[in-house]
Design brief:
This is tRNA(Ile)-lysidine synthase. It is found in: Cytoplasm. 37% of the residues lie in helices and 19% in strands. It is built from 14 helices and 20 strands. Helix 2 (33-45) crosses helix 7 (169-178), helix 5 crosses helix 8 and helix 5 (126-138) crosses helix 9 (214-243). The longest helix has 30 residues, at 214-243.
Length: 442
């Protein structure tokens, strides 16, 4: 084996050193040059090194007739190397960008097959990183986008690794030729209607003719921007820690931030903190579409502004902003009679209800607010429920979800609110576990 071959193997092992304790290394194997070299390298390293279990996964998109033969090719390569192969067939959604739809389908499959303490290895290299940087620059990306592809990130229950980002395509071609490897040439890689192919075949040859080190220097710029993004993330965390103080309604289980803390920051720093906070919860608007945040932040008086985002909503109440998604955006249906109050009651789109202590006599019903409700309180007499909720400071978006316990037409308790959620004299309490926030994006 030549010195360059040894260097490539050593570099790969060095990049994967922190992940040697994983249970499985799963290689994303398209059958193309890059992933074929990665698979071959790892299979041969496994003969002399103590590595995690190797597996390969081939995603079949079914977008062209030629692709039907690729699973068989991948299987023969894996059989020769002694690496088990899983073929996953996906359906690519139609849309404006076939590139993006195929990528979404592919990574959806990767997420499903990557389990806890496993890593998925993909074979993107330094040339791919330079293409990514230029592609995103032309789309007006910010610092995070221009930092390029990270060498590792969370994926499903495990992690995605790109151990060849410091290797050139030319290095991979030399290795493949030396080992007489066979790989698939995807016909779509020549179709220059796809943006990345246009950059690869039309733009980069011109750039590298004038600046031979263009791809290396662009990859270095991406590394600088990743470092800058890391600093922005640290700043965001400092600001979020300041705005994330506990509040009286933490029991709702909803993420929230103190508005006054955010308002002390510059506009750019507000956007940085919010982008960091929302990134795992929703797809974010581009930099030209943050007017919803300004409207939410600057609303006055009794206004109840809402900023609607792709996967949920930001509400403003009690001097805080609150993230609502999933069941919190759906109106819970009427409940009716509680047949057996000794058992917890699952409320559709509204969590779980239970009674502790002696069960009140009579036929019990669960309702939600409609307006005009009156509650009889010991030592206070009849009180309007709306006023009681105002006194308790219940956020406006939660008021219509509070389960109300009735006996006939008598309002006995309001779940979740101390002093209104049971009877101290009779020793029973109404407990409500609100619906959990949807996990959002990973």
């Amino acid at each position: 084996m030549s010195q360059s071959m040894i260097d490539l193997s050593a570099r790969l092992l060095l990049n994967l050193k922190p992940w040697r304790t994983a249970t499985t290394w799963r290689i994303a194997f398209s059958g193309g040059l890059d992933s074929t070299v990665l698979l071959h390298l790892l299979a041969h390293l496994a003969k002399t090194q103590s590595l995690p279990t190797l597996n390969a996964v081939h995603v079949h998109h079914g977008l062209q007739a030629a692709a039907d033969a690729w699973p068989a090719h991948c299987q023969s390569v894996c059989d020769a190397l002694g690496v088990p192969l899983e073929v996953v067939r996906v359906k690519v959604q139609s849309g404006a960008s076939l590139e993006r739809a195929a990528r979404d389908a592919r990574y959806g499959a990767f997420i499903k097959c990557t389990h806890a303490n496993e890593v998925l290895l993909t074979a993107q290299h330094r040339d791919d990183q330079a293409e990514t940087l230029l592609f995103r620059l032309l789309r007006g990306a910010g610092v995070r986008g221009l930092s390029g592809m990270p060498s590792e990130r969370a994926l499903g229950q495990g992690h995605l690794l790109r151990p060849l980002l410091d290797v050139t395509r030319a290095d991979l071609e030399v290795y493949a030729a030396a080992h007489q490897l066979r790989w698939i040439e995807d016909p779509s890689n020549e179709d220059r209607q796809f943006s990345r192919n246009y950059l690869r075949h039309q733009v980069f040859p011109v750039l590298t003719e004038r600046w031979p080190q263009a791809q290396a220097t662009m990859a270095r710029s991406a590394a600088h921007l990743r470092e800058a993004q890391g600093l922005l993330d640290e700043l965001a965390q400092i600001d979020l820690d300041e705005a994330g103080h506990r509040n009286d309604f933490d029991w709702l289980g909803l993420p929230s931030l103190e508005l006054a803390s955010l308002e002390k920051l510059s506009a750019a720093r507000q956007r940085n903190a919010l982008s960091h906070w929302l990134a795992t919860r929703t797809r974010l608007p581009d930099s030209d579409h943050w007017s919803g945040w300004q409207d939410l932040r600057d609303a006055t008086g009794d206004a109840r502004p809402i900023w609607r985002l792709a996967d949920g909503e930001l509400h403003r109440a009690n001097g805080r902003i609150w993230w609502l998604s999933g069941a919190w955006l759906r109106t819970p249906p009427v409940v009716g009679r509680w047949a057996d109050p000794t058992l917890p009651l699952a409320l559709l789109d509204n969590g779980l209800l239970s009674l502790t202590g002696p069960i009140p006599d009579g036929s019990l019903h669960i309702r939600y607010r409609e307006g005009g409700e009156i509650m009889n309180l010991p030592e206070r007499g009849h009180r309007d429920l709306k006023r009681l909720l105002n006194e308790s400071g219940v956020p406006s978006f939660a008021r219509g979800r509070l389960p109300l316990l009735y006996r006939g037409e008598q309002l006995l308790a309001v779940a979740g609110l101390r002093g209104l959620n049971g009877s101290a004299r009779d020793g029973w309490n109404l407990h409500w576990q609100p619906p959990s926030e949807d996990q959002g994006l990973s």
